[in-house]
């Protein structure tokens, strides 16, 4: 297979679709915010993530590979962190995302969404800001349609549309109920830009991460409800900028528990006794017995 055909096949995979969409969103947002303003963080995050992933795999397995997962994690980190952060902050955050995949894992794979875990860690380490500039919050309202169209395309390709719809429905419904029964001013920003853009970006591109989210629709519904309710609880109790990410991480924990319990309950495969037993002719059996006695 030629490199061209390999690259063509990659861009037909979920990772390939996601990479195209994220690069498109980054280009649109950067054109408005200024390439010189956002480029240092994007380059630092992507390069750091890829180099760390290459180094870990080279040392552990002795092979070279293209770290597509690290590329996506670094890009997501850069699109969420404030572009005003020094270049080393997105670099360290992206490196933490990659390292977490190898340190926090089970036999079924890594437990947490790497970018989400690293962003929460960076908040406590560096008091980072998260403006989700890759979700196009600073552009005119019609650009939300670009975010929706590209995000729904990716979610459909990974068969996670039910999870996206259930999460967004539950999320906004719970906040609306709180506003109706409690203090509307406290949650008003949830329904405005940039928080709406951040929620859509989160639901479409992070919640749907195939390695850390369920595939069956019933499990997707539970996962989405957990993420939405925990996000609301963290926001109402602590008000931290990481409330969406916290909901996802708790959902990741539930998904890990579900996979482990499902694996432990799965019946062990017994030998197939339905196949007919072949009996050797008496002459061959006698020869075999003579050979054993010889």
Quick synopsis:
By secondary structure, the chain is mostly helical. The protein is built from 13 helices and two strands.
Explain what you see:
It is built from 13 helices and two strands, in the order H-H-H-H-H-E-E-H-H-H-H-H-H-H-H. It has one domain (3-264): Ammonium transporter fold (Orthogonal Bundle), CATH 1.10.3430. With 294 residues, the chain is an all-alpha fold. Strand 1 (105-106) and strand 2 (109-110) form a beta hairpin. Helix content is 70%, strand content 1%. The chain is globular, with a radius of gyration of 24 Å. The chain has a two-stranded antiparallel ribbon with strand order 1-2. Residues 282-294 have low confidence and may be disordered. It starts with a helix and ends with a helix.
Straight-line N-to-C gap = 54 Å
* Strand percent estimate: under 5%
Q: Could you say which structural class the secondary elements and strand pairing correspond to?
A: mainly alpha
What does the overall shape look like? globular
Spatial sequence of strands, sheet with the most strands: 1-2
Mean pLDDT metric: 89
Low-confidence stretches: 282-294
> Strand tally, please?
2
Largest sheet: 2 strands, antiparallel
Order of helices and strands: HHHHHEEHHHHHHHH
What count of domains describes the coordinates? 1
